[in-house]
Design goal:
The chain has about 190 residues and is α+β, with helices and mostly antiparallel strands. It has one domain (about 25-190): Glutaredoxin (3-Layer(aba) Sandwich), CATH 3.40.30.10. The protein contains 6 helices and 11 strands. The strands form 3 sheets. The protein has a 7-stranded mixed beta sheet with strand order 2-1-5-4-3-7-8. A two-stranded antiparallel sheet has the order 6-11. Strands 9-10 form a two-stranded antiparallel sheet.
Length: about 190
């Protein structure tokens, strides 16, 4: 490749804007439309935590999610709870957020547009979103759950934490996808 061609290629790659995240019909608990695929100002990524109010595995992860959010928010990574099941009403979600002490925004994805964009299939499952709505990581929080009903006392691999460490350091995420174990999304079974 000639020096001129290389310079043009570098210019194209460094000036090309990432594809904008399309509009989504996701609403916050006040009913306001929001697009969580657009990074908040000053943030380098956002973690979408897919959860439901009645999944015991999701509920057991609440303290871990809180700890990760507190740690990585200082490094420019935001967290949002995503409730993709239409039966989880705003009132039920508010009660759930309060019961588990979540200190992060929550949205309803009743049309499952975020589910489709990220490819999640169970709760809890997470998606780390970068600029332009790009999915940098999707999958489990850690490997504590081996299969439904089968778990370890302590995780041996903290997949989400490793992905967030890479993002915070400006490095590529080496393992971009893992299999999450949890409660299947009922709306996907229709």
């Amino acid at each position: 490749m000639t020096r001129k061609a290389l310079a043009i290629l570098v210019l194209l790659v460094t000036t090309a804007a990432p594809a904008a995240a399309g509009p989504v019909r996701v609403v916050d608990l006040a009913g306001k439309s929001v697009n969580p695929l657009v990074l908040p100002s000053g943030r380098i990524a956002i973690v979408l935590v897919f959860t439901t109010t009645d999944c015991p595995i999701s509920n057991r992860y609440a303290p871990d999610i809180q700890d990760l959010a507190a740690r990585f928010q200082k490094q420019g990574i935001a967290f949002t709870l995503v409730y993709p099941v239409s039966l989880d009403t705003p009132a039920v979600i508010r009660e759930h957020v309060k019961k588990f002490g979540y200190a992060m925004p929550a949205v309803r994805d009743t049309a499952q547009e975020l589910v489709k964009h990220t490819g999640v299939t169970v709760t809890p499952e997470v998606a780390v979103i970068g600029p332009g709505g790009q999915v940098l990581y999707r999958g489990r929080i850690d490997d504590r759950y081996i299969d439904f009903g089968k778990d370890r006392p302590h995780p041996t691999e903290r997949s989400l934490e490793r992905a967030l460490e890479a993002v915070a350091q400006g490095k590529p995420v080496t393992v971009r996808e893992t299999k999450a174990v949890g409660c299947f999304l009922p709306d996907l079974l229709k």
